[in-house]
Amino acid sequence: MSTASATTLDGLKLKQDLGFAKKGLFWALLSGITWGFDGVILAMAFGIAAFADESLWLLAPLTVAGLHDCFSAFWLLVYNMITGRMKELGRTLRSKPARLVMLGALFGGPVAMSSYFLGAKFAGAAYVMPITALYPAVASVFASIFLKERICKRAWVGLVMCIVGGIVIGYTPPEGAVGSEFYLGIMLALIATFGWGIEGVLATSGMDFLDPAVALNVRQLTSAFVFLTVVLPLAGGWDLIVPALTSNLHWVFPVAAFAGALSYLCWYRAMNMTGVSRAMAINITYSLWGIFFSALLTEIEITKSLLVGAAIITVGMVMVVGNPKDMVNLRNVD
User: Could you tell me the CA-to-CA distances from 89 to 181, 205, 260, 268 in Å, in that order?
Assistant: First the structure.
């Protein structure tokens, strides 16, 4: 092969890989938009009359989280059925890589989702979302250790800015909030942050050998199963499921879960296409979309600290992403 031909082939491969990486960023952005919508819609469930009893402070958020993942698993089953992936789903459930996805589901589902919705109950979705947007920092540390992703100095500065932005948001409660409950909500949001960060690394390791859509279905089925058989029974039972699904706000569960299923589908695909650190850095724009949808659909107070913190997180995210021309090596952040 001549030098000119080799150069042409290298150029075509470079263009193809760059196009692949850009598609991964698109999926990451879409996952952020849909997750922001998901969180705001699902937070409306706390307006259900049956959830107003203070003695149900633990069971109510866990029921919301459990119903979310159950409906999400259902929507993904429908998607995989329509796209002809049901046989692949059965094979995947018996495979070794699926075990990593299932382990990630425990961190991302019962641990992170429970903490997230408890946090949303105490501090509000608009404040919890930017805090949980710090999960790329956790994921990047684990990805650099276990997946050998290389994180440059600029990207680390960006991740530190994400952390600073989260601190700015959580430092001052909104007017009218109960201080102790607000800070408890922020603490729970941090637990969710670690859960999702660890899940991202485990899921990406498993998806090296699995279809992202099928892997996600395994994730949601695992999470839903654990919620129904372990988490809810330990928290007090299934007493709130029927009241929740027969209330005037019953629609929030399938609607939010559909957005959540789409968000996770895009997120898993993005991580598989462009690496954990970069995909998560784009995905955290859900903190901005959460503020947007909260302002549009709810009466949450949008404070200056919330806007400033979200802006800092966004700048940090851009620093992590870096120059699009450097995205050819999809598992490095240069």
Answer: 42, 18, 20, 16
